[in-house]
Every structure is written in structure tokens, then in C-alpha cells.
Automatic annotation (TrEMBL):
Protein known as: Uncharacterized protein
Residue stretches spanning the membrane: 25-43, 55-76, 192-210, 216-237
Keywords (A to Z) from UniProt: Membrane, Transmembrane, Transmembrane helix
Length: 238
């Protein structure tokens, strides 16, 4: 059950890291929103509100929301898939280990535990890689010896071609999952789209700050709500 144990350890570390990231994200967002609200108060006190409310401002809000929704939709697709990949890796490693250990049961004169040991080392390396402590090249260096050990274990199956095919198929599936995770990590949207989103949010918040409003408390409420949603979304996506 080494793969499941490693997965539990990875899950605990990931939850702890995610909790800290959420706290930092909220602190950063609330700090920016507080600065925007303070800027609105200062602009109102000094009479620097030079923008009148008009229908074009509503268009700016709608276009910014659409742009953020487009970015969020693309990010969520990879996020949902990435949630499944560690469990699929753990399942593949566990099945591979059990099938190799079964070689000694089917052929008592054969010992396939050397391959199970290599799989254990490889599984531990995968956990370190998922935690960004090991590079992908180092992970692949551990994959190749593990693959050779599995091939040697498959040779022990003298009269069971289907099991041989399953062993090598599991190794191929694990490599495919590793490459998929690496692709998700390295793939991002075009930087220009992010810059456009940041610029739209900046212009929107600037317009809210400079917009004329006779009731300060209403202006503060709307600017805090809108800027909180926009800044939180772009921070979450980024």
C-alpha cells in the first residue's frame, strides 16, 4: 500500500500548502481593496471626482466580467483534471506493485520483488516531484531504471503474455500521466490576455474612484464589492 500511503502524505502536504496560499491570497486582496476604498475617500474629500456616471461605464464592467469569465473557464478545466491525476498515478503504481508481487505466487521459483523496490523508489520520487522538490528530468532518471526492472520482472512470466502486456502498459500509462501533469504545469494563457485583464480591472477601479457620487457610503459600498470580486478573480486565475 506504499502508493496510497504516499498519496495520503502528498494530500496532507498539499492541503497545508493550499491553506497558507489561501490566507496569503485573501490578505493581499483585502489589502488592495482597502487601499482602493481609502483612495476613494481621499478623492471625495478633495473634490477630485471628475467622471460622470454614463452607460459606457456599464459596458466597461460587462466587458471586464466577460474577460475574467473567459480566463476562469480555461483555468478551471485544467484544475479539474489536475485533481484526478495524483489519484490515477497512485492507482497505477499500486496495481503495478501488486501484479509484480503476484509473480512470486504464480512462479514460486521467481522473485520479482526487486522490481517492487524500484517502484517504491519511483513512487517516492513522484511525491517529491508533485511537491516541486524534484525536477522533471530527475523524475525521468528514476523512471528509466524502474521501467527496466519491470521489463526484467515481465521476462519472469514465461507463459503469461497478457500479464506482460499489462505490466508494460501500466508503465506507459504512468509516463503519460507524468507528461500530462508537466504539460498542465507549464501551459499558461497568452501573457497579453492577462495584461489586458489587469489593465481592464485597473481602469475599472480607477473609474470607480474618480466617479462623482454625492453619497460617500454608497460609493464605498459599490467600489468595495466590485473591486473585491474583480481583484479576487484575477488573483485566483493568476
Amino acid at each position: 500500500m506504499f502508493a496510497l500511503g504516499n498519496l495520503e502524505r502528498f494530500g496532507a502536504n498539499r492541503l497545508r500548502k493550499a491553506r497558507l496560499q489561501r490566507i496569503k491570497l485573501l490578505l493581499r486582496v483585502f489589502s488592495l481593496v482597502a487601499l482602493i476604498a481609502a483612495a476613494k475617500v481621499a478623492v471625495h474629500r478633495f473634490g477630485w471626482e471628475v467622471i460622470q456616471l454614463n452607460p459606457l461605464f456599464t459596458t466597461l464592467v460587462a466587458s471586464t466580467v466577460f474577460l475574467l469569465g473567459f480566463l476562469l473557464n480555461g483555468v478551471l478545466a485544467d484544475y479539474k483534471e489536475s485533481e484526478k491525476l495524483p489519484a490515477e498515478l497512485a492507482t497505477g503504481l499500486e496495481v503495478l506493485s501488486l501484479e509484480i508481487k503476484a509473480i512470486s505466487i504464480q512462479y514460486p521459483d521467481s522473485d520479482g520483488y526487486f522490481a517492487a523496490t524500484e517502484i517504491t523508489f519511483f513512487a517516492e520520487t513522484i511525491v517529491e516531484w508533485l511537491l516541486n522538490r524534484v525536477s522533471t528530468s530527475d523524475l525521468l532518471k528514476q523512471y528509466y531504471p524502474c521501467h527496466r526492472a519491470v521489463v526484467k520482472a515481465a521476462i519472469l512470466l514465461k507463459s503469461d503474455p497478457p500479464l506482460k502486456a499489462r505490466l508494460l502498459g501500466e508503465m506507459a500509462a504512468i509516463l503519460k500521466l507524468v507528461n500530462r501533469i508537466e504539460t498542465i504545469r507549464e501551459t499558461s494563457f497568452v501573457k497579453l490576455v492577462y495584461w489586458l485583464a489587469y489593465a481592464a480591472i485597473g481602469l475599472l477601479c480607477g473609474g470607480l474612484i474618480l466617479m462623482e457620487n454625492t453619497r460617500l457610503h454608497e460609493a464605498i459600498f459599490f467600489i468595495v464589492v466590485i473591486s473585491l470580486m474583480m481583484i479576487f478573480l484575477i488573483s485566483l486565475i493568476g
